[in-house]
């Protein structure tokens, strides 16, 4: 049996992941990631605790004690600080960030692997709903909970040493297993907020760290439609919080240089093409000019859509030009774009447009 370092978040998923591995006979160690954000100790909406909060650390420690495994609460404040700075910088640049992808890439499957080696652990396990088969990454069988989108940035070497015990389970099954084990977290609400924005309003974080830039709402032709308190508080596809214009309007584009938020009708959101840069492949990287037929997912809750990818260039500067079979709404620069072949994750990158 293997010695496995299991990431414990204090929630039901990671708790059942650890339980499943222990019941299979593995030797476990538990780790909790502290993010160093003081405000993360405050409860989120409706009494939910933010991921990485002090309350979550306590719950993770209780689960480790219940399982009888060594437990480490490690301060990753400096590393989280880099993710937070990047998050704020993306909104200042008029883009919509995907910090959870970077957290998985750099912390959960970066720094934690380094810690695992220090403890002599062979593998790293998390409570993600995803699957690994023969070194390849696949969607979790529960498509409603699948988290493979957030994992495309994992290195192939790390992926070969990753374990996702919940990949073939549903959320209902996970809670049932937790109840059967007598875990106090069995019916614990899920944490839906970013761990470093426990109050749920990212605009306050941006305001505190970099300030907001007021400017104009305009239409596609540049006609002024109203004023806003900061373009950083908007993202492509957004409808709420816009001026009353008689008919529904949506954010079409952010122009940070002019501090303008471009509004238009929903039909104007639809686009059939996208450009993806900073590519990361979980297969052998395609060559310059190669065309792949894939399903392309452009945000966490987006249903992956058929598209053709044309690879332009090779190496770190390579990009992908994507053409969807049918136009998609709200292609937001800064979001992760993930390429699938059926359930298999081929790779991904970051939307430029």
Please name the fourth-level CATH homologous superfamily of the largest domain.
HUPs
Order of helices and strands: EHEHEHHEEEHEHHEEEEEEEEEE
Spatial ordering of strands, largest sheet: 12-15-14-13-16-17
Unreliable segments of 5+ consecutive residues: 39-50
Mean pLDDT: 93
Specify the CATH architecture of the largest domain. 3-Layer(aba) Sandwich
Structural class: alpha/beta
Q: End-to-end distance, in Å?
A: 47 Å
Beta-strand percent range: 25-35%
CATH topology of the largest domain, by name, is Rossmann fold
Global morphology: globular
Number of helices: 7
- How much helical structure, as a percent, in the residues? 10-25%
Instruction: Please identify the top-level CATH class of the largest domain.
Output: Alpha Beta
Model description:
The chain is of the alpha/beta class and 353 residues long. It has 3 domains: 3-181, Rossmann fold; 212-268, Adenine nucleotide alpha hydrolases-like domains (SH3 type barrels); 270-351, Beta Barrel (Elongation Factor Tu (Ef-tu), domain 3). It contains 7 helices and 17 strands. The protein has helices spanning 12-23, 54-67, 77-92, 99-118, 156-159, 171-181, 202-210; strands spanning 3-7, 27-34, 71-75, 123-125, 130-133, 136-139, 162-163, 215-218, 224-228, 250-255, 260-264, 271-281, 291-297, 305-312, 319-328, 336-341, 344-351. The strands form 4 sheets. The chain has a 6-stranded antiparallel beta barrel. A hairpin with a 4-residue loop joins strand 10 and strand 11 (260-264). Helix 1 runs parallel beside helix 2, helix 1 (12-23) packs across helix 6 (171-181) and helix 3 runs antiparallel to helix 4. Residues 39-50 have low confidence and may be disordered.
